[in-house]
Structures are given as C-alpha cells and as structure tokens.
Amino acid sequence: MISDKLFALRRRAGMSQQEVAAAIGVSRQTVSNWEQNQGAPALDKAAELARLYGVSLNDLASDEVDVVSSAGTRAQSDLHVLEAFVGAKDATISLSGDEATIQHAEILEAGGGWLRIAVERSTALFGNPKTKREHVIRLIDLDDVLSITMALAAAPSAKTSETEGA
Length: 166
Hints:
By secondary structure, the chain is α+β, with helices and mostly antiparallel strands. It has helices at 2-13, 17-24, 28-35, 43-53, 57-61, 80-83; strands at residues 65-68, 91-95, 101-111, 114-124, 131-141, 145-150. 29% of the residues lie in helices and 29% in strands. It has a six-stranded mixed beta sheet. InterPro entries: Cro/C1-type_HTH (IPR001387), Lambda_DNA-bd_dom_sf (IPR010982).
C-alpha cells in the first residue's frame, strides 16, 4: 500500500511529517492522512515525493513493489561491488532488522541507496489449500543489506579424448 511506503520512505529519509509537508507544499495533516491510508497524494505530489525519497514514481505507486528499510539515512555505500551482482537470478540476501533473509532473489538494480530485486511471493487463498504465487519487486535499503551470496552453477565436467596425444 502506498501509505506503508510513504511512512517507510519518510522514516528512512529521517524526516518529520512537517519537513516532508514543507518540502512538497502541503500541510502536515495531509502527509499524516496519506500515511494513515486516509487518502493518497495527487500525481504531482506523488512525483515530488518520489524525487524527495529517491525512488521512481512507478515504485512509489505500484502495489507490486515493497519497501524494506529499518532505519534512517546513513553514509552512502560504494556500489561498484554490488553492481557486479546485477542480473544475478538466484541470490540470497541477508538483512538486518526483522526480515533476516531473502532467498531466490533476482537482483535488478543497485543504486540511489536501494537494492531493487524481484522475488516470488506465495499467498494463501482463503478457504483453499492452494497458494497463489506472484512476482513482486522489493526496494531494499542498502544500509540493511548484510551480505549477498550467489548459488554457483556446477562446472561442466572436463571430457578428455582417449585418442588425444596418440
């Protein structure tokens, strides 16, 4: 929900509702209402919020994108190592905070303080023993990432010819 994202993004930015309101030209009560799911920002204000928080408007508005962040702003990380993981399809990401590990993640992007990943989520269906599987995008605060590990593909076995060297 956009209300949850707005709260998490504001907290990550280390800003008060009043500071956000002043930055985008609305009242503190308006920001509070958005965070309590009592309305949503108009498109122009949503675009300003996305810029303020360093995310795309699509990520802010999409119900398929989750924000994972446990703390406020800290020092910016050096991303050159993380960029090598972009495109990896079976990563395990260890996080600080409540959510300890994310497995089988595809790393889509690293930058702007965020690690953007795709994961498959299973949701129980009411009154049905089956689960619904869906792909979701998660924006993970880079400050929450403790480690990333990759599953190594098995090396092809070396075939030697019996006639070699004969």
